[in-house]
From TrEMBL:
Superkingdom of the source species: Eukaryota
GO cellular component terms, semicolon-separated: phosphopantothenoylcysteine decarboxylase complex
InterPro entries registered for this protein in UniProt: Flavin_trans-like, Flavoprotein
Protein name as it appears in the record: Phosphopantothenoylcysteine decarboxylase
Pfam families: Flavoprotein (PF02441)
Domain Flavoprotein: 55-237
Species the sequence originates in: Cacopsylla melanoneura
Length: 247
């Protein structure tokens, strides 16, 4: 009987030993995981500090295609998730006076500023103050004009710079990419001067994202609609990828 009692006691003691050992193993693993987590967070913070920033200036003009601005913003923001931990994408928007007509309720985005013609004059008071169109032309790494209406196309092609957007374009450094997405009625697109204006911009270094044929907002069917937002996103992605490849 004493033998069995002794064996039972040994088994109980051994069970306690195993139980304590497992507790210690769990505690050690927990400490390792916490430590690993903090290390990864620190590495992530350091990586973020060293990441290059890529600044996108999205410009909208007085075309009905401006109604796609919220979708374009959403798609450009998605690029940040695609290139997460590789590059930081910043986005701001410039709108002509008539572009605001098509988007009365701008998407509220804390990290996005919407610039209007009025901002050009409000931001400057005296000699030495920064000039907004110069500062924005320096800030951005790429300009995307989507949509580019017939009126602004004609202005840019003939050198006019009477609003914030056209002043930015006049001060543009053509060592950086500039994309434009024409958008107008088919009749306007077919006018001989349109092709001339398009070729002028392309001759300077502008890159065209061609318009497409579809049923337009006015009900007409034909060429002149702005390229699909996904197509625009793909073209922006290509430029970002080039920057990442060069790092």
């Amino acid at each position: 009987l004493n033998f069995f009692v002794l064996v039972e006691k040994c088994i109980i003691d051994f069970s306690h030993l195993i139980s304590n050992l497992l507790i210690r193993i769990r505690q050690t693993c927990l400490r390792i995981n916490i430590s690993k987590s903090f290390c990864l967070q620190n590495i992530f913070v350091m990586d973020m500090m060293e990441l290059k920033e890529f600044n996108v200036l999205l410009c909208c003009t007085g075309s009905v295609a401006t109604i796609k601005l919220p979708e374009m913003i959403e798609q450009i923001e998605q690029l940040q998730y695609e290139f997460n931990k590789l590059i930081i994408i910043n986005l701001n928007v410039v709108m002509t006076k008539h572009a605001f007509h098509f988007v009365p309720d701008l998407p509220h985005k804390p990290n996005i500023r919407y610039y209007s013609d009025d901002d050009e004059w409000i931001s400057w008071e005296k000699r030495g103050d920064p000039v907004l169109h110069i500062e924005l032309s320096k800030w951005c790494d790429i300009i995307v004009i989507a949509p580019l209406d017939a009126n602004t196309l004609a202005k840019v092609a003939t050198g006019l710079c009477d609003n914030l957007l056209t002043c930015i374009l006049r001060a543009w450094d053509f060592n950086k990419p500039i994309l434009f997405c024409p958008a107008m009625n088919t009749k306007m697109w077919q006018h001989p001067i349109t092709k001339s204006h398009i070729n002028t911009l392309k001759g300077w270094g502008y890159e065209e994202i061609p318009c497409v044929s579809k049923t337009l907002m006015c009900g007409d069917t034909g060429l002149g609609a702005m390229a699909e937002v996904e197509t625009i996103k793909v073209e922006i992605r290509k430029r970002i990828q080039r920057v990442i490849t060069s790092l």
